[in-house]
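Forum: Protein Structure Q&A
Topic: Joint prediction for protein chains with partners

I've read a bunch of threads here and the consensus seems to be that you should model interacting components together rather than docking separate models afterwards. I'd like to see that in practice. Below is the full input, 565 residues plus whatever partners are listed. Could one of the regulars post the assembled result?
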Amino acid sequence: MRALLRMVKVETRLFLRDSATVIFGVLFPTGLLLGLGAIPALREPSPGTGGLRDIDVWAPTALVFGMVMIAVQHVPAVVATYRERGILRRLSTTPAPPGRVLLAQMIVAFASVVVSATLMILLAWAVLDIAPPERPLEFAVAFVVGYAALLGIGMVSAAVVRTSSAANQVGTLLFVALMFFGGAFLPRVVMPDVLREVGEFIPPGLQALTEAWSAEAGELTSTTGGQPFWPQIAVMAVVAVTTSAVAAELFRWE
Amino acid sequence: MTALEVRNLHKRYGQHVAVADVSFTVEEGEIFGIIGPNGAGKTTTVESIAGLRTPDSGSISVLGLDPTKDRAEVCERLGVQLQESSFPDAIKVAEALELHSSFYRNPADWRELMKLLGLTEKRDTQYKALSGGQKQRLSIALALVGNPEVAILDELTTGLDPQARRDTWNLIERVRDRGVTILLVTHFMDEAERLSDRIAVIHGGRVAAVDTPAGLIARSSAVQQVRFRVSRPLDRSVLTELPDVTDVEVTEGRWLVTGRGQFLSSVAGALARAQVVAEDLRVDQRNLDDAFVAFTGRAPEPPEAATGRGD
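Posted by a regular:
Agreed with the consensus. Here's the joint model:
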């Protein structure tokens, strides 16, 4: 326990010294939302979004950006580097199980997205008058379970890539794919139904996050064939458990 | 007491036999050197002792424990400095030491260790900004931070400048003086000769010889030579009759005596008995490099580039 706490502390410091990740993973989502919020047209209630403003509907996508960035780009790159450079191997000669460092990584990765999300929600509220999540408990569940599913995917990538450069390439591909369903390129509200329905199975589950944040926005982005909130959460939980098990099975220590 | 025992270790990777048959024992408090050409099986042997590889056959005992089965206990009591292991770029010296000390039941005082290794001034320097020597010293410090009873040091001074190497040697001797048993894998013959109480020469996955440095040198050198002038006439037979002497040449008052084994002391004794003083005495000094060549058929080579695996 003492070793884990100290590892979390050290990994936190290492995370904070990695300025690119801090900027893109933690600060960028807020910056992105505030930046878009500076465009007057996006702050006008529009008939296409049922009287909501575009930024109200789009806000969860900014959140997903930070989550995906850290889970599938940052974490696998760090783990692959640790393996490539013999850090995991070196650790396995000490009484600290090398799995601890992975756990510490995941704890730090989780804490950093919590900070990223909190910052974004508060500033969105203060600056853009986007109300904080209407159903905080459901929002927290959707956030945690959705993030676990993302992190599971990240760990599968970390488990199988051989080098840190491969980790970066796979991470970029995953980032683009996940952010597509996360609504970064095509807002969910304008996606065809079939993409929206597929999107309910893609971590971290943008629809569930949107519904828990704002019922009105959730209604706009849902489809008639879509699932209710809790089944969406169950899908994310299944993805999280499956990917974690696969990652644990495939993980290479050296 | 025996600190380390390797018995008939055998390890193969697919078709490639990395270690054919290696056995040796290391006594408590000893500095035991392992030398041998690249690819001889040194690193595999050491990794098996550290529990990173499971032998295909044979047995290993570290302080009476099995490195694979008694993993947790062995990790507590065995310190390992591996070739080509590194640390996160952004970790600071003091953080790495403090972190690693938290892994152990009875850690050493990491601040004292930091001082001992001359890293105190670098305590807030990130790993990536350290020089090669400083990185190496940090790696040694981390191998010792758990207060190990046995320490494995693989390629201890590779990449260090001559002064840093000598400083590191002094340090290792001080560590040994604290009672730590040391297994030293090295490519440097001077390092092995200077530090080791005993040395195993590993060649082609087998132990070619185990002896003290002096013993290895004596065993390997088929012939040795000594040159001198004599203070007064001497009959050749005084020396040719000695059992270890193979040849005696005298040209213009210069004597060249060739022999094997302990012939030097026999020659010295015979000269003393004849009351002859040897002047301009020169012994063709054999060293561990010669022994290495004799046992492996190859000249000692520099370590492989830092990116390649040792063996």
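The CA atoms of residues 79 and 158 of chain A lie 6 Å apart.
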